[in-house]
Design brief:
Blueprint: H1 2-10, H2 14-37, H3 45-54, H4 58-67
Length: about 70
């Protein structure tokens, strides 16, 4: 049980995963700031906040492609 999970966590190659997590976090933060500042989005803002937070990495990209209202 628990010991196996800890060994699996210890065996993760953090050198590969850490940069991905950082990029993912930056994307999410930038998207959330943009949602907060922008006047209107395609659809309710709260839906885009959920998309950005729940759908990691792809969520912020989807927001920037489809969520922003072009003036």
């Amino acid at each position: 049980g628990g010991k196996l999970k800890m060994e699996q966590l210890a065996n993760i190659n953090w050198a590969l995963i850490a940069p991905l997590l950082i990029v993912q976090a930056i994307l999410a933060i930038v998207a959330l700031i943009d949602i907060a500042r922008i006047h209107a989005t395609n659809g309710p803002k709260w839906v885009w906040v959920l998309v950005v937070l729940v759908i990691n990495t792809i969520g912020p990209i989807v927001y920037f492609i489809f969520g922003r209202k072009t003036s």
